[in-house]
Specification:
There is one protein chain. The protein is α+β, with helices and mostly antiparallel strands. It has two domains: about 200 residues, Metalloenzyme, LuxS/M16 peptidase-like (Cytochrome Bc1 Complex, Chain A, domain 1, 2-Layer Sandwich), CATH 3.30.830.10; about 90 residues, Cytochrome Bc1 Complex, Chain A, domain 1 (2-Layer Sandwich), CATH 3.30.830.10. It is built from eleven helices and nine strands. The strands form two sheets. Strands 1-2-6-3-5-4 form a six-stranded mixed sheet, covered by helices on one side. The protein has a three-stranded antiparallel sheet with strand order 7-9-8, sandwiched between helices. Helix 1 crosses helix 7 and helix 3 packs parallel to helix 8.
Length: about 350
Amino acid sequence: MSSPPVLNHMPLKLNLKCAREQLDNGLVLLISENHKVPLVSLNAFVLAGQDQNPPDKPGLAAFTARMLDEGTENFDYSQMAEVLEGAGGALSIFSQRELSGINLQLKAEDLNLGFELLAEMLCRPVFPADRLELEKEKVLNHLRSMEDDPPTVAGNLFNRLIYRGTPLQHPALGLLDSVDQLSVSDLRLFHSQRYSPLRTLIVLAGDISMEAAKECVKTRFAGWRTPEYEHVGLTELKRQEVPIFETTTVDKEQVHILLGHLGVTRRNPDFPVLQVLDVILGSGPGFTSRIPRRLRDEQGLAYTTYSDISGSAGIYPGRFAAYICTSPENRETALKGLVGEIRELV
């Protein structure tokens, strides 16, 4: 068999200038200056994600993050919303497997306001009980609706098998029972233990100077202290040693199949190679990948089908997942075809 041709390509060069500063309290600041547009982006990333949920409180990390802008020591919910709207700013908050975070987009002239709001949310949230109850009701309604969504049900079962015994086995937003029982004291304790300068990275980009940014950060965050709480990550995740097969029933007309296993971390030396393999096998655009082209386009076995291993990689291993949605009468043929495409590649 002859060797494949060597691919020649231009070397990738990134010309991103970034300065780094660390405060005495451990807070790390990264700044990338770009003065072409009078806007700034303020981002805070905190190691307080789903992996930090206590075993009996799924969803706690997500709720703590979602409540950061619902009221602080100096701004109630309405005041914060009015200030942001008046400045033409945009705010988003997220919580993921390994971290939670805040993103603020503002005009450069409102930099001080942005840092004031960021410090309020990170350091001084109060988690008002009335706002928590409203948030719980929204999430509970969402979780109930997802119980009738077959892809979500299948994905939740798949995660429970992949990450069994860890906080990652549950949906990030929690379970109906756990969400219903969350209290203000739960959120305040989680925040006091896990939101701290030593676990926080602030990233700034836009029309801003390093000196101005350092001054703002020192003014707003120099007094923030790390509590005496030991950060404990997940123990080493292990792939199952024997195949596991489980089914669940949802009253719908399609069959949703997920197969896979524990994946890799972002630091895996093969990560770039796996990204390329993802495009070849199942995550390329349109019908360019093998699985969608052969199983859906050519054989007509699937409504939706894909595979991916790199997309979920992070600090912790993600998952390799191959998915196909088909009709009940094509279940066995579709599953056989999915396995066949994977075996042919690897």
